[in-house]
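From: lab user (bench 3)
To: helpdesk
Subject: output format question, protein + protoporphyrin IX containing FE

Hello, I'm new to running complex predictions and I'm not sure whether the block I got back is the full result or only part of it. Here's what I submitted:
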Amino acid sequence: MVERKFSEPTDEIVQLEPVEVRRYIAFTRWNHWFTAICFIVLMLSGFAFFHPSLYGLTALFGGGQMTRWLHPFVGIALTVSFLGMFFQLVHLNIIRREDLVWTRNIKDVITGHEERLPELGKYNFGQKTVFWGMFWLILALLITGVMMWYQYFPHLVSIETRRIAILVHAVSAVLIVLVFILHIFAALWTRGTLRAMTRGTVTGGWSWRHHRKWLRELARRQRTKPAE
Amino acid sequence: MTIAPNMDSPRTATANPPTHPVPPNLGQANVVRSSAGGPVAENPQPLTEVAKLIDVSKCIGCKACQSACIEWNDTQPEVGVNVGVYENPHDLTPEMYTLMRFTEFDNPDTGDFEWLIRKDGCMHCAEPGCLKACPAPGAIVQYSNGIVDFISENCIGCGYCVSGCPFDIPRISPVTHVAKKCTLCSDRVAVGQGPACAKACPTHAITFGTKDDMKALAAERIEDLKSRGYENAGLYDPAGVGGTHVMYVLHHNDKPQVYDGLPEDPKISDVVQNWKGPAKPVGIAAVGLAAIGAAAMALFHRGNSVSQEDEAEARELVQEELRGAPVERPHDKGNA
Ligand code: HEM
Ligand code: SF4
Ligand code: SF4
Ligand code: SF4
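Helpdesk reply: Thanks, we reran it on our side. This is the complete output you should expect:
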Protein backbone atom coordinates (compact mmCIF):
# COMPACT_ATOMS: atom_id res chain seq x y z
CA MET A 1 0.00 0.00 0.00
CA VAL A 2 1.34 3.45 -0.93
CA GLU A 3 1.58 5.83 1.97
CA ARG A 4 -1.28 8.35 1.93
CA LYS A 5 0.10 11.83 2.64
CA PHE A 6 -1.61 14.26 0.30
CA SER A 7 -5.04 12.80 -0.26
CA GLU A 8 -8.18 11.64 1.52
CA PRO A 9 -9.16 7.96 1.50
CA THR A 10 -12.22 8.92 -0.57
CA ASP A 11 -10.26 10.84 -3.23
CA GLU A 12 -10.04 8.75 -6.37
CA ILE A 13 -9.35 8.82 -10.08
CA VAL A 14 -12.77 7.85 -11.41
CA GLN A 15 -12.13 8.03 -15.15
CA LEU A 16 -9.07 7.82 -17.36
CA GLU A 17 -10.14 9.14 -20.73
CA PRO A 18 -10.15 12.02 -20.09
CA VAL A 19 -8.85 11.87 -16.56
CA GLU A 20 -11.40 12.83 -13.96
CA VAL A 21 -10.77 12.86 -10.22
CA ARG A 22 -13.18 12.76 -7.32
CA ARG A 23 -12.26 15.52 -4.87
CA TYR A 24 -15.23 15.62 -2.49
CA ILE A 25 -17.81 13.01 -1.58
CA ALA A 26 -21.46 14.04 -1.37
CA PHE A 27 -21.37 14.35 2.42
CA THR A 28 -18.59 16.93 2.30
CA ARG A 29 -20.38 18.86 -0.41
CA TRP A 30 -23.64 18.99 1.50
CA ASN A 31 -21.69 19.99 4.58
CA HIS A 32 -20.01 22.75 2.60
CA TRP A 33 -23.20 24.18 1.14
CA PHE A 34 -25.04 24.08 4.45
CA THR A 35 -22.14 25.98 6.02
CA ALA A 36 -22.25 28.46 3.13
CA ILE A 37 -25.96 29.09 3.57
CA CYS A 38 -25.49 29.65 7.31
CA PHE A 39 -22.66 32.02 6.53
CA ILE A 40 -24.68 34.09 4.11
CA VAL A 41 -27.61 34.31 6.52
CA LEU A 42 -25.21 35.38 9.28
CA MET A 43 -23.56 37.93 7.06
CA LEU A 44 -26.85 39.50 5.99
CA SER A 45 -28.41 39.42 9.45
CA GLY A 46 -25.26 40.52 11.31
CA PHE A 47 -24.43 43.40 9.01
CA ALA A 48 -27.99 44.67 9.39
CA PHE A 49 -26.90 45.72 12.89
CA PHE A 50 -23.46 46.83 11.84
CA HIS A 51 -24.44 50.08 10.17
CA PRO A 52 -27.75 51.97 9.96
CA SER A 53 -27.52 52.02 6.16
CA LEU A 54 -27.77 48.21 6.20
CA TYR A 55 -30.60 47.97 8.73
CA GLY A 56 -33.05 47.38 5.88
CA LEU A 57 -31.61 43.85 5.57
CA THR A 58 -33.68 42.95 8.65
CA ALA A 59 -36.71 42.92 6.31
CA LEU A 60 -35.30 39.71 4.79
CA PHE A 61 -35.77 37.93 8.08
CA GLY A 62 -39.09 39.38 9.17
CA GLY A 63 -37.99 42.53 11.01
CA GLY A 64 -35.51 43.63 13.64
CA GLN A 65 -36.74 41.45 16.49
CA MET A 66 -36.72 38.30 14.32
CA THR A 67 -33.28 39.07 12.91
CA ARG A 68 -31.88 39.68 16.38
CA TRP A 69 -33.36 36.41 17.56
CA LEU A 70 -32.29 34.36 14.53
CA HIS A 71 -28.68 35.44 14.08
CA PRO A 72 -27.09 33.74 17.10
CA PHE A 73 -28.90 30.43 16.48
CA VAL A 74 -27.64 30.36 12.91
CA GLY A 75 -24.23 31.15 14.40
CA ILE A 76 -24.42 27.95 16.43
CA ALA A 77 -25.54 26.01 13.34
CA LEU A 78 -22.63 27.45 11.39
CA THR A 79 -20.18 26.46 14.10
CA VAL A 80 -21.41 22.87 14.25
CA SER A 81 -21.47 22.59 10.46
CA PHE A 82 -18.04 24.15 10.11
CA LEU A 83 -16.61 21.77 12.70
CA GLY A 84 -17.87 18.93 10.53
CA MET A 85 -15.83 20.31 7.65
CA PHE A 86 -12.93 21.11 9.91
CA PHE A 87 -12.40 17.53 11.03
CA GLN A 88 -12.69 16.23 7.47
CA LEU A 89 -10.20 18.67 6.03
CA VAL A 90 -7.79 19.67 8.77
CA HIS A 91 -4.98 17.17 8.30
CA LEU A 92 -4.41 18.14 4.66
CA ASN A 93 -4.50 21.81 5.59
CA ILE A 94 -1.44 21.80 7.84
CA ILE A 95 1.02 24.38 6.54
CA ARG A 96 4.07 22.72 4.88
CA ARG A 97 7.43 23.93 3.67
CA GLU A 98 6.42 24.05 -0.01
CA ASP A 99 3.59 26.42 0.92
CA LEU A 100 6.13 29.03 1.95
CA VAL A 101 7.97 28.74 -1.36
CA TRP A 102 4.65 28.96 -3.18
CA THR A 103 3.70 32.10 -1.22
CA ARG A 104 7.05 33.75 -1.86
CA ASN A 105 6.41 33.31 -5.59
CA ILE A 106 2.74 34.24 -5.54
CA LYS A 107 3.18 36.40 -8.63
CA ASP A 108 3.95 33.31 -10.68
CA VAL A 109 0.56 32.02 -9.61
CA ILE A 110 -1.20 35.19 -10.70
CA THR A 111 0.66 35.39 -14.01
CA GLY A 112 0.03 31.71 -14.71
CA HIS A 113 3.55 30.30 -14.33
CA GLU A 114 2.75 27.49 -11.99
CA GLU A 115 5.42 25.36 -13.63
CA ARG A 116 7.98 27.45 -11.72
CA LEU A 117 6.43 26.48 -8.39
CA PRO A 118 6.77 23.42 -6.21
CA GLU A 119 4.26 20.66 -6.75
CA LEU A 120 1.44 20.79 -4.23
CA GLY A 121 -0.77 18.35 -2.39
CA LYS A 122 -4.54 18.70 -2.13
CA TYR A 123 -4.41 22.35 -0.97
CA ASN A 124 -2.26 25.36 -1.73
CA PHE A 125 -1.40 28.10 0.70
CA GLY A 126 -4.31 30.28 -0.44
CA GLN A 127 -6.77 27.50 0.29
CA LYS A 128 -5.11 26.84 3.64
CA THR A 129 -5.32 30.54 4.50
CA VAL A 130 -9.05 30.47 3.84
CA PHE A 131 -9.37 27.32 5.93
CA TRP A 132 -7.47 28.64 8.96
CA GLY A 133 -8.87 32.16 8.59
CA MET A 134 -12.38 30.76 8.74
CA PHE A 135 -11.45 28.54 11.67
CA TRP A 136 -9.97 31.25 13.90
CA LEU A 137 -12.54 33.87 12.98
CA ILE A 138 -15.50 31.55 13.55
CA LEU A 139 -13.98 30.67 16.91
CA ALA A 140 -13.67 34.38 17.78
CA LEU A 141 -17.20 35.09 16.51
CA LEU A 142 -18.61 32.19 18.49
CA ILE A 143 -16.97 33.18 21.77
CA THR A 144 -17.77 36.87 21.47
CA GLY A 145 -21.20 36.12 20.01
CA VAL A 146 -22.23 34.08 23.03
CA MET A 147 -21.01 36.90 25.27
CA MET A 148 -23.30 39.26 23.35
CA TRP A 149 -26.29 36.92 23.35
CA TYR A 150 -28.31 39.03 25.71
CA GLN A 151 -31.53 37.08 25.62
CA TYR A 152 -30.00 33.90 27.00
CA PHE A 153 -26.75 35.01 28.64
CA PRO A 154 -27.42 38.44 30.14
CA HIS A 155 -25.03 37.95 33.06
CA LEU A 156 -22.36 35.79 31.45
CA VAL A 157 -19.83 38.62 31.34
CA SER A 158 -19.50 42.11 32.82
CA ILE A 159 -20.60 45.15 30.85
CA GLU A 160 -16.95 46.15 30.30
CA THR A 161 -16.14 42.72 28.85
CA ARG A 162 -19.24 42.74 26.67
CA ARG A 163 -18.20 46.06 25.15
CA ILE A 164 -14.91 44.49 24.07
CA ALA A 165 -16.73 41.39 22.86
CA ILE A 166 -18.99 43.46 20.59
CA LEU A 167 -16.02 45.33 19.13
CA VAL A 168 -14.12 42.08 18.53
CA HIS A 169 -17.23 40.49 17.02
CA ALA A 170 -17.71 43.42 14.62
CA VAL A 171 -14.05 43.46 13.57
CA SER A 172 -13.97 39.66 13.18
CA ALA A 173 -17.13 39.85 11.07
CA VAL A 174 -15.44 42.30 8.70
CA LEU A 175 -12.35 40.08 8.51
CA ILE A 176 -14.31 36.91 7.86
CA VAL A 177 -16.20 38.60 5.04
CA LEU A 178 -12.83 39.52 3.53
CA VAL A 179 -11.80 35.86 3.77
CA PHE A 180 -15.15 34.92 2.23
CA ILE A 181 -14.56 37.27 -0.71
CA LEU A 182 -11.09 35.80 -1.20
CA HIS A 183 -12.58 32.31 -1.10
CA ILE A 184 -15.23 32.99 -3.74
CA PHE A 185 -12.85 34.94 -5.89
CA ALA A 186 -10.24 32.17 -5.88
CA ALA A 187 -12.85 29.52 -6.63
CA LEU A 188 -14.07 31.47 -9.67
CA TRP A 189 -10.74 32.80 -10.88
CA THR A 190 -9.18 29.35 -10.85
CA ARG A 191 -11.32 27.96 -13.66
CA GLY A 192 -12.61 24.48 -13.18
CA THR A 193 -12.70 24.64 -9.40
CA LEU A 194 -16.38 25.15 -8.76
CA ARG A 195 -17.35 21.67 -9.97
CA ALA A 196 -15.36 20.20 -7.08
CA MET A 197 -18.14 21.44 -4.82
CA THR A 198 -21.02 20.83 -7.22
CA ARG A 199 -20.31 17.56 -9.02
CA GLY A 200 -17.55 16.60 -6.61
CA THR A 201 -15.03 15.94 -9.37
CA VAL A 202 -12.31 17.92 -11.14
CA THR A 203 -10.50 17.28 -14.41
CA GLY A 204 -7.11 15.65 -14.59
CA GLY A 205 -5.68 18.80 -16.16
CA TRP A 206 -6.88 20.88 -13.24
CA SER A 207 -5.33 18.44 -10.80
CA TRP A 208 -2.09 18.27 -12.74
CA ARG A 209 -1.84 22.05 -12.96
CA HIS A 210 -2.69 22.93 -9.38
CA HIS A 211 -2.30 19.87 -7.17
CA ARG A 212 0.14 17.53 -8.89
CA LYS A 213 1.38 15.73 -5.80
CA TRP A 214 -2.20 14.95 -4.95
CA LEU A 215 -2.90 13.56 -8.42
CA ARG A 216 0.33 11.56 -8.43
CA GLU A 217 -0.45 10.01 -5.10
CA LEU A 218 -3.95 9.03 -6.19
CA ALA A 219 -2.57 7.31 -9.28
CA ARG A 220 0.03 5.47 -7.18
CA ARG A 221 -2.55 4.44 -4.67
CA GLN A 222 -4.71 3.02 -7.41
CA ARG A 223 -1.82 1.14 -9.00
CA THR A 224 -1.19 -0.92 -5.91
CA LYS A 225 -4.85 -1.60 -5.32
CA PRO A 226 -5.60 -5.26 -5.74
CA ALA A 227 -7.42 -5.87 -9.02
CA GLU A 228 -11.17 -6.01 -8.75
CA MET B 1 -49.82 76.29 39.22
CA THR B 2 -50.75 74.94 35.84
CA ILE B 3 -48.71 74.99 32.69
CA ALA B 4 -49.00 78.56 31.48
CA PRO B 5 -49.55 79.05 27.74
CA ASN B 6 -46.13 80.63 27.32
CA MET B 7 -44.39 77.80 29.13
CA ASP B 8 -43.32 74.72 27.21
CA SER B 9 -42.69 72.49 30.22
CA PRO B 10 -43.77 72.21 33.81
CA ARG B 11 -41.64 74.26 36.21
CA THR B 12 -42.41 72.18 39.24
CA ALA B 13 -43.66 68.74 40.14
CA THR B 14 -45.58 69.72 43.23
CA ALA B 15 -48.19 71.85 41.49
CA ASN B 16 -51.47 70.26 40.54
CA PRO B 17 -51.91 69.23 36.93
CA PRO B 18 -53.71 71.42 34.46
CA THR B 19 -57.48 71.10 34.76
CA HIS B 20 -58.07 71.52 31.05
CA PRO B 21 -56.81 69.01 28.50
CA VAL B 22 -53.38 69.90 27.12
CA PRO B 23 -52.12 68.42 23.86
CA PRO B 24 -48.88 66.52 24.48
CA ASN B 25 -45.90 68.57 23.37
CA LEU B 26 -43.28 65.83 23.22
CA GLY B 27 -43.17 63.94 19.98
CA GLN B 28 -41.45 63.63 16.66
CA ALA B 29 -41.45 67.44 16.30
CA ASN B 30 -39.02 67.72 19.23
CA VAL B 31 -36.69 64.84 18.44
CA VAL B 32 -33.14 66.14 18.20
CA ARG B 33 -31.32 62.81 18.21
CA SER B 34 -32.42 59.37 17.18
CA SER B 35 -30.53 56.10 17.38
CA ALA B 36 -28.98 54.54 14.26
CA GLY B 37 -29.88 57.47 12.05
CA GLY B 38 -33.57 57.32 12.87
CA PRO B 39 -35.72 60.32 11.94
CA VAL B 40 -35.08 63.62 13.72
CA ALA B 41 -37.17 66.77 13.43
CA GLU B 42 -35.93 69.09 10.70
CA ASN B 43 -36.48 72.23 12.71
CA PRO B 44 -36.95 70.81 16.18
CA GLN B 45 -39.21 72.94 18.25
CA PRO B 46 -36.81 74.28 20.89
CA LEU B 47 -37.95 73.43 24.40
CA THR B 48 -36.52 74.65 27.65
CA GLU B 49 -34.10 72.11 29.07
CA VAL B 50 -35.62 70.36 32.04
CA ALA B 51 -33.99 68.46 34.87
CA LYS B 52 -34.76 66.46 37.94
CA LEU B 53 -32.68 67.30 40.98
CA ILE B 54 -32.20 64.60 43.60
CA ASP B 55 -30.93 65.96 46.88
CA VAL B 56 -29.38 62.91 48.47
CA SER B 57 -28.97 64.73 51.78
CA LYS B 58 -32.73 65.11 52.14
CA CYS B 59 -33.79 61.57 51.27
CA ILE B 60 -35.19 59.42 54.06
CA GLY B 61 -35.40 56.23 52.02
CA CYS B 62 -39.16 55.88 52.21
CA LYS B 63 -39.43 54.67 48.58
CA ALA B 64 -42.58 56.68 47.91
CA CYS B 65 -40.85 57.58 44.64
CA GLN B 66 -40.47 53.92 43.69
CA SER B 67 -44.12 53.28 44.44
CA ALA B 68 -45.19 56.31 42.44
CA CYS B 69 -43.05 55.13 39.54
CA ILE B 70 -44.63 51.67 39.57
CA GLU B 71 -48.05 53.24 39.84
CA TRP B 72 -47.67 55.72 37.00
CA ASN B 73 -45.84 53.40 34.61
CA ASP B 74 -48.12 50.51 35.51
CA THR B 75 -45.23 48.07 35.90
CA GLN B 76 -45.48 44.79 37.77
CA PRO B 77 -42.32 44.16 39.79
CA GLU B 78 -42.10 40.70 41.29
CA VAL B 79 -42.62 40.34 45.01
CA GLY B 80 -39.05 40.02 46.26
CA VAL B 81 -37.17 38.14 48.94
CA ASN B 82 -35.70 39.81 51.99
CA VAL B 83 -32.00 39.08 52.16
CA GLY B 84 -31.31 41.56 54.95
CA VAL B 85 -30.72 44.72 52.92
CA TYR B 86 -32.98 47.66 52.24
CA GLU B 87 -32.81 47.61 48.46
CA ASN B 88 -36.07 46.31 47.13
CA PRO B 89 -35.91 44.92 44.49
CA HIS B 90 -32.22 44.05 44.55
CA ASP B 91 -31.49 45.77 41.27
CA LEU B 92 -33.17 47.80 38.58
CA THR B 93 -35.40 45.55 36.50
CA PRO B 94 -37.52 45.94 33.37
CA GLU B 95 -40.41 46.50 35.80
CA MET B 96 -38.57 48.83 38.23
CA TYR B 97 -37.15 51.94 36.63
CA THR B 98 -35.83 53.52 39.80
CA LEU B 99 -34.28 52.05 42.92
CA MET B 100 -33.16 53.43 46.25
CA ARG B 101 -29.60 52.21 46.81
CA PHE B 102 -28.45 52.16 50.44
CA THR B 103 -24.82 52.40 51.53
CA GLU B 104 -23.38 52.20 55.03
CA PHE B 105 -20.41 54.53 54.86
CA ASP B 106 -17.74 54.71 57.55
CA ASN B 107 -16.41 58.19 56.91
CA PRO B 108 -12.65 57.95 57.45
CA ASP B 109 -12.29 61.75 57.78
CA THR B 110 -14.83 62.32 60.52
CA GLY B 111 -15.18 58.86 62.02
CA ASP B 112 -18.92 59.21 61.45
CA PHE B 113 -21.06 56.36 60.32
CA GLU B 114 -23.27 57.62 57.51
CA TRP B 115 -26.26 56.04 55.87
CA LEU B 116 -26.24 57.14 52.26
CA ILE B 117 -29.32 56.68 50.11
CA ARG B 118 -29.21 57.34 46.40
CA LYS B 119 -32.11 57.13 44.03
CA ASP B 120 -30.73 55.24 41.03
CA GLY B 121 -32.19 55.42 37.54
CA CYS B 122 -31.59 56.87 34.11
CA MET B 123 -29.59 60.11 34.21
CA HIS B 124 -30.91 61.42 30.88
CA CYS B 125 -27.42 62.19 29.64
CA ALA B 126 -26.92 65.05 27.19
CA GLU B 127 -24.66 62.62 25.30
CA PRO B 128 -26.38 59.28 25.86
CA GLY B 129 -24.23 56.18 25.44
CA CYS B 130 -27.33 54.04 25.08
CA LEU B 131 -28.41 56.02 22.02
CA LYS B 132 -24.92 55.85 20.55
CA ALA B 133 -24.81 52.05 20.86
CA CYS B 134 -28.32 51.23 19.64
CA PRO B 135 -28.49 49.63 16.16
CA ALA B 136 -32.23 50.10 15.62
CA PRO B 137 -33.31 53.35 13.94
CA GLY B 138 -35.53 55.40 16.23
CA ALA B 139 -35.48 52.97 19.17
CA ILE B 140 -33.89 55.64 21.38
CA VAL B 141 -34.64 59.33 20.94
CA GLN B 142 -33.65 62.53 22.68
CA TYR B 143 -36.07 65.43 22.81
CA SER B 144 -35.05 69.06 22.68
CA ASN B 145 -35.80 69.41 26.40
CA GLY B 146 -33.11 66.80 27.14
CA ILE B 147 -35.25 63.76 27.93
CA VAL B 148 -33.92 60.47 26.55
CA ASP B 149 -36.73 58.07 25.72
CA PHE B 150 -36.87 54.45 24.57
CA ILE B 151 -39.42 53.84 21.82
CA SER B 152 -40.36 50.21 22.35
CA GLU B 153 -42.01 49.64 18.99
CA ASN B 154 -38.65 50.25 17.28
CA CYS B 155 -36.60 48.30 19.82
CA ILE B 156 -35.28 44.86 18.84
CA GLY B 157 -34.13 43.78 22.30
CA CYS B 158 -30.46 43.32 21.41
CA GLY B 159 -29.14 44.80 24.66
CA TYR B 160 -26.53 47.04 23.00
CA CYS B 161 -27.85 49.97 25.04
CA VAL B 162 -26.80 48.13 28.21
CA SER B 163 -23.24 48.12 26.90
CA GLY B 164 -23.45 51.73 25.79
CA CYS B 165 -24.74 53.19 29.06
CA PRO B 166 -22.06 54.38 31.49
CA PHE B 167 -24.50 54.03 34.41
CA ASP B 168 -25.77 50.44 33.90
CA ILE B 169 -29.39 51.52 33.55
CA PRO B 170 -31.32 49.84 30.72
CA ARG B 171 -32.90 46.45 31.38
CA ILE B 172 -34.28 44.13 28.69
CA SER B 173 -37.63 42.57 29.39
CA PRO B 174 -37.49 38.79 29.02
CA VAL B 175 -41.21 38.88 28.27
CA THR B 176 -41.61 41.63 25.68
CA HIS B 177 -37.92 41.67 24.55
CA VAL B 178 -37.61 45.43 24.63
CA ALA B 179 -35.39 47.73 26.67
CA LYS B 180 -36.91 49.60 29.60
CA LYS B 181 -35.77 52.46 31.81
CA CYS B 182 -36.95 55.68 33.45
CA THR B 183 -38.63 57.96 30.91
CA LEU B 184 -38.37 61.04 33.17
CA CYS B 185 -42.13 60.70 32.91
CA SER B 186 -41.97 62.11 29.38
CA ASP B 187 -45.67 61.32 29.03
CA ARG B 188 -46.43 63.51 32.07
CA VAL B 189 -43.98 66.26 31.23
CA ALA B 190 -45.52 66.47 27.75
CA VAL B 191 -48.81 67.54 29.31
CA GLY B 192 -47.49 69.88 31.95
CA GLN B 193 -47.00 67.55 34.88
CA GLY B 194 -43.81 66.84 36.76
CA PRO B 195 -42.46 63.29 37.15
CA ALA B 196 -44.42 60.97 39.40
CA CYS B 197 -41.49 60.34 41.75
CA ALA B 198 -40.91 64.05 42.31
CA LYS B 199 -44.58 64.57 42.93
CA ALA B 200 -44.66 61.78 45.53
CA CYS B 201 -41.51 62.63 47.46
CA PRO B 202 -42.55 63.75 50.98
CA THR B 203 -39.29 65.55 51.77
CA HIS B 204 -38.81 67.35 48.47
CA ALA B 205 -35.57 65.46 48.00
CA ILE B 206 -36.71 65.18 44.38
CA THR B 207 -37.53 68.40 42.59
CA PHE B 208 -38.22 69.10 38.96
CA GLY B 209 -38.03 72.15 36.74
CA THR B 210 -35.86 73.82 34.15
CA LYS B 211 -32.26 72.79 34.25
CA ASP B 212 -31.25 76.34 35.16
CA ASP B 213 -33.73 76.51 38.03
CA MET B 214 -32.52 73.17 39.31
CA LYS B 215 -28.92 74.32 39.21
CA ALA B 216 -29.83 77.44 41.14
CA LEU B 217 -31.72 75.40 43.70
CA ALA B 218 -28.78 73.03 43.97
CA ALA B 219 -26.44 75.95 44.59
CA GLU B 220 -28.58 77.05 47.54
CA ARG B 221 -28.64 73.55 48.93
CA ILE B 222 -24.90 73.14 48.53
CA GLU B 223 -24.26 76.41 50.34
CA ASP B 224 -26.45 75.24 53.18
CA LEU B 225 -24.68 71.88 53.36
CA LYS B 226 -21.29 73.56 53.36
CA SER B 227 -22.36 75.83 56.20
CA ARG B 228 -23.21 72.71 58.13
CA GLY B 229 -19.80 71.12 57.73
CA TYR B 230 -20.11 69.25 54.44
CA GLU B 231 -17.33 71.13 52.77
CA ASN B 232 -17.23 68.79 49.77
CA ALA B 233 -20.91 69.12 49.03
CA GLY B 234 -21.56 69.68 45.35
CA LEU B 235 -23.67 69.12 42.28
CA TYR B 236 -23.31 65.91 40.27
CA ASP B 237 -23.86 66.94 36.65
CA PRO B 238 -21.02 65.02 35.02
CA ALA B 239 -19.37 66.80 32.11
CA GLY B 240 -18.08 63.53 30.61
CA VAL B 241 -21.57 62.81 29.25
CA GLY B 242 -22.24 66.47 28.46
CA GLY B 243 -24.13 66.95 31.72
CA THR B 244 -27.28 65.11 32.73
CA HIS B 245 -30.95 65.90 33.09
CA VAL B 246 -31.10 64.04 36.36
CA MET B 247 -28.67 65.60 38.80
CA TYR B 248 -27.69 64.86 42.37
CA VAL B 249 -26.79 67.08 45.27
CA LEU B 250 -24.16 65.01 47.07
CA HIS B 251 -22.67 65.77 50.46
CA HIS B 252 -19.48 64.03 49.30
CA ASN B 253 -19.24 65.24 45.74
CA ASP B 254 -15.47 64.61 45.88
CA LYS B 255 -16.09 60.87 46.02
CA PRO B 256 -19.33 59.94 44.26
CA GLN B 257 -18.35 56.24 44.27
CA VAL B 258 -19.31 55.98 47.95
CA TYR B 259 -22.94 56.29 46.87
CA ASP B 260 -23.11 52.67 45.81
CA GLY B 261 -20.66 53.06 42.96
CA LEU B 262 -21.89 56.24 41.31
CA PRO B 263 -19.16 56.71 38.66
CA GLU B 264 -16.71 59.50 39.34
CA ASP B 265 -16.13 60.50 35.73
CA PRO B 266 -18.76 58.77 33.61
CA LYS B 267 -18.31 58.93 29.87
CA ILE B 268 -19.12 56.76 26.89
CA SER B 269 -16.48 54.02 26.95
CA ASP B 270 -13.64 54.36 24.44
CA VAL B 271 -14.38 50.82 23.30
CA VAL B 272 -17.93 51.86 22.40
CA GLN B 273 -16.65 55.04 20.73
CA ASN B 274 -14.26 53.03 18.57
CA TRP B 275 -16.83 50.39 17.75
CA LYS B 276 -19.46 52.93 16.75
CA GLY B 277 -16.88 55.34 15.36
CA PRO B 278 -13.98 54.35 13.07
CA ALA B 279 -14.78 50.61 13.01
CA LYS B 280 -17.91 51.12 10.91
CA PRO B 281 -16.69 53.25 7.97
CA VAL B 282 -13.35 51.42 7.90
CA GLY B 283 -15.12 48.06 7.94
CA ILE B 284 -17.57 48.98 5.20
CA ALA B 285 -14.80 50.50 3.09
CA ALA B 286 -12.62 47.38 3.48
CA VAL B 287 -15.42 45.03 2.46
CA GLY B 288 -16.51 47.35 -0.36
CA LEU B 289 -13.00 47.72 -1.79
CA ALA B 290 -12.34 43.98 -1.56
CA ALA B 291 -15.60 43.18 -3.31
CA ILE B 292 -15.03 45.75 -6.07
CA GLY B 293 -11.39 44.64 -6.47
CA ALA B 294 -12.38 41.00 -6.73
CA ALA B 295 -15.17 41.76 -9.20
CA ALA B 296 -12.87 43.91 -11.34
CA MET B 297 -10.18 41.24 -11.44
CA ALA B 298 -12.77 38.59 -12.24
CA LEU B 299 -14.02 40.71 -15.15
CA PHE B 300 -10.79 42.00 -16.63
CA HIS B 301 -8.31 39.26 -15.86
CA ARG B 302 -8.32 36.10 -17.94
CA GLY B 303 -8.45 33.86 -14.96
CA ASN B 304 -6.37 30.78 -14.51
CA SER B 305 -7.60 28.20 -17.02
CA VAL B 306 -6.63 24.61 -17.53
CA SER B 307 -5.28 23.98 -21.04
CA GLN B 308 -5.42 20.97 -23.35
CA GLU B 309 -1.71 20.42 -22.63
CA ASP B 310 -2.50 20.21 -18.93
CA GLU B 311 -5.05 17.51 -19.68
CA ALA B 312 -2.54 15.62 -21.81
CA GLU B 313 0.13 15.91 -19.12
CA ALA B 314 -2.37 14.65 -16.59
CA ARG B 315 -3.17 11.61 -18.71
CA GLU B 316 0.50 10.86 -19.14
CA LEU B 317 1.23 11.19 -15.45
CA VAL B 318 -1.70 9.05 -14.45
CA GLN B 319 -0.85 6.36 -17.01
CA GLU B 320 2.75 6.29 -15.91
CA GLU B 321 1.94 6.03 -12.25
CA LEU B 322 -0.93 3.66 -12.70
CA ARG B 323 0.75 1.12 -14.92
CA GLY B 324 4.40 1.73 -14.30
CA ALA B 325 4.79 2.82 -18.03
CA PRO B 326 2.74 4.70 -20.62
CA VAL B 327 0.39 2.58 -22.74
CA GLU B 328 -0.66 3.41 -26.26
CA ARG B 329 -4.38 3.34 -25.89
CA PRO B 330 -5.72 3.93 -22.41
CA HIS B 331 -9.35 2.99 -22.14
CA ASP B 332 -11.96 4.11 -19.69
CA LYS B 333 -11.47 2.36 -16.39
CA GLY B 334 -14.56 3.73 -14.67
CA ASN B 335 -13.81 2.48 -11.22
CA ALA B 336 -10.13 1.70 -11.46
C1 HEM C 1 -20.46 31.85 15.33
C2 HEM C 1 -21.48 32.16 16.02
C3 HEM C 1 -22.07 33.54 16.12
C4 HEM C 1 -22.81 33.97 17.19
C5 HEM C 1 -23.16 33.15 18.44
C6 HEM C 1 -23.18 35.33 16.93
C7 HEM C 1 -23.92 36.12 17.79
C8 HEM C 1 -24.19 37.46 17.62
C9 HEM C 1 -25.01 38.24 18.49
C10 HEM C 1 -25.66 37.74 19.77
C11 HEM C 1 -25.06 39.49 17.97
C12 HEM C 1 -25.85 40.67 18.55
C13 HEM C 1 -27.13 40.82 17.80
C14 HEM C 1 -28.12 39.72 18.16
O1 HEM C 1 -28.39 39.53 19.35
O2 HEM C 1 -28.57 39.03 17.23
C15 HEM C 1 -24.27 39.52 16.78
C16 HEM C 1 -24.03 40.63 15.98
C17 HEM C 1 -23.31 40.60 14.80
N1 HEM C 1 -22.81 39.49 14.18
FE1 HEM C 1 -22.74 37.62 14.95
N2 HEM C 1 -22.68 35.73 15.72
C18 HEM C 1 -21.99 34.66 15.18
C19 HEM C 1 -21.37 34.61 13.92
C20 HEM C 1 -21.29 35.68 13.05
C21 HEM C 1 -20.72 35.63 11.72
C22 HEM C 1 -20.13 34.40 11.06
C23 HEM C 1 -20.80 36.89 11.21
C24 HEM C 1 -20.35 37.44 9.88
C25 HEM C 1 -20.41 36.88 8.75
C26 HEM C 1 -21.41 37.73 12.21
C27 HEM C 1 -21.65 39.07 12.05
C28 HEM C 1 -22.21 39.88 13.00
C29 HEM C 1 -22.29 41.30 12.88
C30 HEM C 1 -21.73 42.16 11.73
C31 HEM C 1 -22.96 41.76 14.02
C32 HEM C 1 -23.26 43.22 14.35
C33 HEM C 1 -22.08 43.80 15.08
C34 HEM C 1 -22.26 45.27 15.33
O3 HEM C 1 -23.36 45.67 15.74
O4 HEM C 1 -21.31 46.00 15.13
N3 HEM C 1 -21.72 36.97 13.31
N4 HEM C 1 -23.75 38.26 16.57
S1 SF4 D 1 -32.29 46.78 23.21
FE1 SF4 D 1 -31.46 48.83 23.49
S2 SF4 D 1 -29.88 49.00 21.90
FE2 SF4 D 1 -31.16 47.25 21.31
S3 SF4 D 1 -32.74 48.13 19.96
FE3 SF4 D 1 -33.61 48.19 22.03
S4 SF4 D 1 -33.09 50.22 22.80
FE4 SF4 D 1 -31.78 49.85 21.02
S1 SF4 E 1 -28.10 57.02 31.95
FE1 SF4 E 1 -27.75 55.39 30.48
S2 SF4 E 1 -29.79 54.89 29.75
FE2 SF4 E 1 -29.94 56.91 30.70
S3 SF4 E 1 -29.57 58.37 29.02
FE3 SF4 E 1 -27.59 58.01 30.00
S4 SF4 E 1 -26.73 56.38 28.73
FE4 SF4 E 1 -28.91 56.36 28.30
S1 SF4 F 1 -39.75 59.59 47.83
FE1 SF4 F 1 -38.15 61.08 48.29
S2 SF4 F 1 -37.56 60.66 50.39
FE2 SF4 F 1 -38.72 58.91 49.71
S3 SF4 F 1 -37.16 57.50 48.92
FE3 SF4 F 1 -37.83 58.67 47.15
S4 SF4 F 1 -36.40 60.38 47.06
FE4 SF4 F 1 -36.18 59.48 49.10
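A quick orientation on your result: The longest strand of chain B covers residues 99-106. Let us know if anything else is unclear.
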